[in-house]
Amino acid sequence: AYAGSNEGLNIFGLYRTQWVGLEGAPKTATLSVNTPLGDSGLGLGVNFVNDHLGVMDDNTLSVDLSYAIDLNYHYKLAFGLKGSANLLDVNYSKLHIYNPSDPVAESDIKNKFTPNIGAGLFLYSDKAYVGLSAPNLLTRSRYNDNDVKTLREKLHVYATGGYVFDLSNDIKFKPAAM
Length: 178
Known about the structure:
This protein is an all-beta fold.
């Protein structure tokens, strides 16, 4: 529901790495672009996330569409929908396995495709905002579907809020919580 809530084109990028120098250390790269679509009340966002951890490479591409309505002179309420596609690769052959006949390591996972949908609400003004979202409404099984080991992701609901304090004409303080 956040897509298009600010004026103009917004681009955000992030690269994060942990345990620098260790083989297989966690790395995350994110690129997010969103914009309002004219004066229609519609907003469009596109997000890409790559998570790399050890032998796992997890890529998610999502498209967000929002529609905002004016509640009054100060506040807008946006309703959002998300469609996402996830590709998972797990290269077990890179592991040093004690028991090579372990069924977990029998076959790599290559481009396992998992679709998902999400929804959210975002109430905002120039001074404050609150939001509620569930970006992954569908349950997703991870790694494999046999009886050996399956991890199921559960539904997560996120709440956020923030306020803008004008400390001077040029300085704003924007605390937020999630």
